[in-house]
């Protein structure tokens, strides 16, 4: 069965997990798994663009991932720089707009420069928006939103009655995006690991056993097909 064209999720978010295990299975160091994960990022981006998904949010580095061995962290940072350089022409060719969420100022200067450059060179693209979550966590996002709202309250730009789901959403890093429709995690673990929290309130969750470096178009299609089988009720009773 192929995915139906009339029910494509607008916003897909993926926890790209399993790189370390992929490398370990081959007797390699974890970083080889990360390196081979770049091909899967390309496959996910191209498939999402082809299917007509509007937003693809990829969890690349969590707030908690800073606690990994220093060598792994620095290798991930250089891999990011290399991948951006390499993928930039393809993103532009495919009309993909690149953006990030997360604590970008906490990233190395070199990474920040590359991110700014690719955001700038792809900002006019009108197809898929590729959102890479870097030094991101759902709780970080919520804490930030609370701080911004508190400041606006103190400055009397906002009244307490104006604090509601809409205004909170507008202060999150995903302010410009719709809520997540389809949430995918590869690697077989069934948990959310502090990825988008507020934004997945009514997402359909799909957990796939495939390790991230092996993720390809067929896995994406499988997740979308699963999404299309689900009945989204949003707490209501659907008419018979
Ligand atoms: C996900 O793969 C990539 C990042 C967190 C950067 P992991 O590195 O977590 O791989 P496993 O889960 O240990 O296999
Ligand atoms: C989540 O995976 C973070 C990313 C994929 C970037 P982790 O491997 O860090 O999460 P846990 O440790 O399994 O919860
Ligand atoms: Mg992991």
At the fold tier of CATH, the topology name is Undecaprenyl pyrophosphate synthetase
CATH class: Alpha Beta
Structural classification:
alpha/beta
| Average pLDDT reading | 97
Q: Helical amount among residues, as a percent range? A: 40-55%
CATH architectural type: 3-Layer(aba) Sandwich
Count of helical stretches: 7
The CATH superfamily bears the name Decaprenyl diphosphate synthase-like
Please state how the strands of the largest beta sheet are arranged side by side: 3-4-2-1-5-6
- Molecular shape: globular
Distance between the termini: 26 Å
Largest sheet: 6 strands, parallel
Q: Hey, roughly how much beta strand do the residues contain? A: 5-15%
Low-confidence stretches: none
- Compute the CA-based radius of gyration: 18 Å
Cofactors, ions, other ligands: 3-methylbut-3-enyl trihydrogen diphosphate, magnesium ion
User: What is the total number of structural domains?
Assistant: 1
Write up what this structure looks like.
The protein has 240 residues and is α/β, with parallel strands linked by helices. The chain has one domain (11-137, 179-229): Decaprenyl diphosphate synthase-like (Undecaprenyl pyrophosphate synthetase), CATH 3.40.1180. Helix content is 43%, strand content 14%. It has helices at residues 19-25, 30-51, 70-93, 109-122, 138-154, 165-171, 217-229, and strands at residues 11-15, 55-62, 97-101, 129-136, 182-185, 204-207. It has a 6-stranded parallel beta sheet, sandwiched between helices. α4 links the parallel β3 and β4 (129-136). The longest helix has 24 residues, at 70-93. One 3-methylbut-3-enyl trihydrogen diphosphate is lined by residues 16-21, 30, 61, 65, 76, 187, 212. One 3-methylbut-3-enyl trihydrogen diphosphate (IPE) is lined by residues 16-21, 30, 61, 65, 76, 187, 212.
């Amino acid at each position: 069965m192929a995915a139906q064209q009339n029910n494509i999720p607008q916003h897909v978010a993926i926890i790209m997990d399993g790189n370390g295990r992929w490398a370990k299975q081959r007797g390699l160091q974890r970083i080889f798994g990360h390196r081979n994960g770049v091909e899967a990022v390309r496959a996910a981006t191209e498939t999402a663009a082809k299917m007509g998904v509007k937003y693809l949010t990829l969890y690349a580095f969590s707030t908690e991932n800073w606690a990994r061995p220093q060598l792994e962290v620095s290798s991930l940072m250089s891999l990011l720089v290399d991948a951006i350089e390499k993928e930039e022409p393809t993103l532009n060719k495919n009309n993909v707009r690149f953006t990030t969420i997360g604590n970008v100022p906490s990233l190395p200067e070199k990474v920040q420069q590359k991110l700014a450059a690719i955001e700038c060179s792809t900002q006019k693209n009108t197809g898929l928006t590729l959102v890479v979550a870097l030094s991101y966590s759902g709780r970080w996002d919520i804490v930030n939103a609370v701080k911004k709202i508190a400041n606006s309250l103190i400055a009397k730009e906002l009244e307490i009655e104006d604090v509601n789901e809409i205004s909170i959403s507008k202060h999150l890093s995903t302010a410009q995006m719709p809520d997540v429709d389809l949430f995918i995690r590869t690697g077989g673990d069934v948990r959310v690991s502090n990825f988008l929290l507020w934004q997945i309130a009514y997402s359909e969750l799909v957990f796939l056993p495939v390790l991230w470096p092996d993720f390809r178009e067929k896995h994406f299609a499988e997740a979308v097909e699963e999404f299309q089988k689900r009945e989204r009720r949003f707490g209501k009773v659907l008419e018979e």
